[in-house]
């Protein structure tokens, strides 16, 4: 049985090595894959937009750590609104860029900017949770707000430096001959961008989660039942010389200090630690294949099949969908705010 093909696109490309009619026949599997990717784009945009609207409308969210969540949602909305649609167009044309040099440079800059900011926002949230768990006495609301604002500023500053460097001559992003649009393959820029955008924040989040795990393990070990049980004492009472001696045994009650039950703060810290662990785990699984390929390919002058490059790229993009999903799932305030938001609209 032959598999049906659909000629979906046809474009007249001039100025390249492959002039003439450029078309791409699609199989049913390709159409299904592109449909799922389009659904991912829409879902990522709407979900992060919902988080932003909730933070703006609920006054109690106008403080830390929700400013960090808002920064993460902004970067992920930009990924879904500015980066993923153009990447989908590139997939439609067989991973060839037909939109010209200028738009290629804009797309690559937005891609690196938004994805790097999203990664560093995850790192900032992990650091905030770490400090709030291990230094909750000195990590006051005022200090927390100041530090979170500094982290947000550094996140976007570093992301801008990494994304805009190729525009000032550090490598080339567009090839007119092969209709290729990709991040600069200059080896020095590859090392700088991959370490600044992924490997450095990866080391930070792994270190943070290790410290959170140690703190949680220490608390579990120290929360054993403390029991004080005095020994029974024998008190002798002599009433008279001629009367027999009487002895009274007094047994003191056992005094126990029970700490088995979790306090409200401990439950909150446990949820925060679990949220950070899942957030970091998903972040690593989504991005490590892409950044391993980005670092190895230019340095060893080797290549991998284009289809795998696309798989790694879209797996990284999917992290922008999972970020708000994970964070709001462990926050009852967001769940209540979502219900109130939809109930009002009805």
From TrEMBL:
<dbReference type="Pfam" id="PF00001">
    <property type="entry name" value="7tm_1"/>
</dbReference>
<dbReference type="GO" id="GO:0043410">
    <property type="term" value="P:positive regulation of MAPK cascade"/>
</dbReference>
<keyword id="KW-1015">Disulfide bond</keyword>
<keyword id="KW-0812">Transmembrane</keyword>
<dbReference type="GO" id="GO:0071881">
    <property type="term" value="P:adenylate cyclase-inhibiting adrenergic receptor signaling pathway"/>
</dbReference>
<dbReference type="GO" id="GO:0005886">
    <property type="term" value="C:plasma membrane"/>
</dbReference>
<dbReference type="InterPro" id="IPR002231">
    <property type="entry name" value="5HT_rcpt"/>
</dbReference>
<keyword id="KW-1003">Cell membrane</keyword>
<dbReference type="GO" id="GO:0071880">
    <property type="term" value="P:adenylate cyclase-activating adrenergic receptor signaling pathway"/>
</dbReference>
<dbReference type="GO" id="GO:0004938">
    <property type="term" value="F:alpha2-adrenergic receptor activity"/>
</dbReference>
<keyword id="KW-0472">Membrane</keyword>
<keyword id="KW-1133">Transmembrane helix</keyword>
<dbReference type="InterPro" id="IPR000276">
    <property type="entry name" value="GPCR_Rhodpsn"/>
</dbReference>
<protein>
    <submittedName>
        <fullName>Uncharacterized protein</fullName>
    </submittedName>
</protein>
<dbReference type="InterPro" id="IPR017452">
    <property type="entry name" value="GPCR_Rhodpsn_7TM"/>
</dbReference>
<keyword id="KW-0675">Receptor</keyword>
<comment type="similarity">
    <text>Belongs to the G-protein coupled receptor 1 family.</text>
</comment>
<keyword id="KW-0325">Glycoprotein</keyword>
<keyword id="KW-0807">Transducer</keyword>
<keyword id="KW-0297">G-protein coupled receptor</keyword>
<dbReference type="GO" id="GO:0004993">
    <property type="term" value="F:G protein-coupled serotonin receptor activity"/>
</dbReference>
<dbReference type="InterPro" id="IPR001397">
    <property type="entry name" value="5HT5A_rcpt"/>
</dbReference>
